[in-house]
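Subject: Sanity check before I submit

Could someone independently write out the structure tokens for this chain? I want to compare against mine line by line before I put it in a report. The sequence has 354 residues.
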Amino acid sequence: MRVFCRGFIVSCLISSLTLAFPAHADVFCVSTAVQFQDALDSAAVNGEDDQIRLTLGVYQGTFRFSSAEFFDIEIIGGFTSLLGAPCQLPSSDPRQTVLDAEGFGRALFIRGGEGSNATIRNLTFINGDASSENVPDGGGLLIDGLSAGLARARIENSLFVNNRARNGSAIVFGAAEFMELRNNVIDGNVASGNYAVFMENDLVGVHAINNTLINNTAPPSNQGGLNAAVFAGAQALIVNNILWANNGRQLSASSTNSTVRNNTISPQDLTFPDNLSVAPEFSEGIMEYGLLGTSPLIDSGITPQRSEPPIPFPEDWTLPVTDFVGKERILGETVDIGAVEAIPDRVFFDRFED
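---
Independent answer below. Compare away.
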């Protein structure tokens, strides 16, 4: 294990109070855009699992990771120092660590080696534009794998705003056996083709859990929401999401092999039973995604119901430990719908019946 500290004078101290990192992994601490790309380049060829920690701030530019190695990559935003040692304490708010492409290309491209895992956590992606890329999809993030693809691709606790692309204006999952989208906010992205998030799968399946997808647009006859269609025996679990005010179809999911429940879906696209179709009632403010105390989405989510092994796919999942801004994921009687958990302030709740 090595720790690389870039942009700091103080020595690198490892404290028992710090965030745990993978054993036998290289850990990079970066504080500028140049250092971030250097870390991505080093991680692609160093023959180890890698974790890249970004300190609080804005990273302007377009960034790329491409590796043929069978090792994992984890990119996490929001770190601050502890007792003079950099990148020891993680912030809980992804809005404090920003990848800003400034309209000059895709914000981040990730391509891992076959069978590796890729995780993106606690970052904001803004002003990505993939229209000039060789593959003009995934304006904020394109996450992919070589040959048969990644084993797992996970995006969690991240914000995607004002990104543009042909398909998947915010996010495109490429080749991966298993795709996870948890606790993210996808707001105001623009597709010239279809969908803000594109995560089709024909291998193992997809999870979309406790995300907020709102105000994403596409041409009038096209679709602006979430594409989580599965094929060839793959399965989808789509629960506790806000899919609201995206133009066209809010959700594309297979009628078979998909579990779609306890979401709120705009009225024009309520084609799935066991879901709500009610306005979220957000708090006021720019990039504020918390629910008002009167929102019917409070305590209207679902929690995992585990069976005895072998656990079927619709029950083989977990809730995130915290919500989008770092609060406990359950603060009331049960989990809320959407990325942000409300602080309970009312006695009566509108919930799904058991």
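---
OP: Matches mine. For the report I'm noting this point. The longest strand covers residues 73-82.
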